[in-house]
Write a structure and sequence with these properties.
Elements lengths: L3 H17 L8 H101 L4 H9 L32 H9 L12 H11 L22
Length: 228
């Protein structure tokens, strides 16, 4: 329930809202004076008092939050580290096993291709014995391979609840090539983003003399006021 101080502050706020109206539009000296004085004599002093009034409860709530959060982290942080460690190990194990499975798959593919080659050689030899023309024999020998090995089994049994989802990402290996592709219209401009922190620092240093291709400096000035 609001106390006398808060009730008085809210009354001041209501007065400010009535004086400011739906919107303040400055069109002449008089309206400028009205807006400026409302800012420095009422709005800013009110915000200062309002902040001071709520500062204590905010600090108390923040401190209580820190205490509860610290208790939560006592259990969550070591558990999180354990989870991350185990996930890392499972990922590394899965990568090694997938490499092993692929090697077995390649070995199986080589085996079926060699078996097919032997069968073709036997067919070609039989055709030659039967007096087949050289072109026919050559066609048997040089025919493209159609041997496809059956998928080999996984190297380990996955535990229920553990899964792997695809998570494709892009790694830029040559920023200049990417920028050139944008310049040529080969990829959209949003494939690269300007470093606004660096550009703004350059603008603050150079001001209106800043000269960077494709960039113009501008003064996004801020109005400041001191309450009376």
């Amino acid at each position: 329930m609001a106390n006398e101080t808060e009730i008085a502050l809210r009354q001041d706020l209501n007065l400010i809202m009535r004086k400011s109206g739906a919107a303040i539009i400055i069109t002449d000296q008089g309206s400028y004076d009205h807006a400026a004085l409302l800012l420095v004599k009422m709005i800013q002093p009110f915000r200062k008092r309002w902040k001071e009034y709520w500062q204590g409860p905010i600090q108390a709530a923040h401190q209580a939050h820190k205490v509860v959060l610290a208790k939560f982290n006592e259990g969550d942080e070591p558990a999180k580290k354990a989870e991350e460690m185990i996930k890392h190990e499972i990922r590394a194990w899965d990568i090694r096993q997938e490499e092993l499975r692929q090697e077995r798959q390649r070995a199986e593919q080589r085996a079926v291709e060699e078996r097919e080659a032997r069968e073709r050689a036997a067919q070609a030899a039989f055709a030659e014995e039967e007096g087949a023309p050289p072109a026919e024999i050559e066609a048997i020998v040089s025919a493209p391979s159609i041997a496809v090995a059956e998928p080999v089994a996984e190297t380990y049994q996955k535990v229920t609840g553990i899964s792997k989802r695809e998570n494709w990402k892009a790694r830029v290996t040559d920023l200049k090539k990417l920028a050139a592709a944008v310049a040529k219209g080969q990829v959209p401009a949003n494939y690269i983003l300007p470093n606004e922190q660096v550009l703004n620092a350059r603008a603050k240093a150079d001001k209106q003399t800043m000269s960077v291709p494709g960039v113009v400096p501008y003064n996004d000035f801020v109005i400041s006021a001191r309450g009376r």
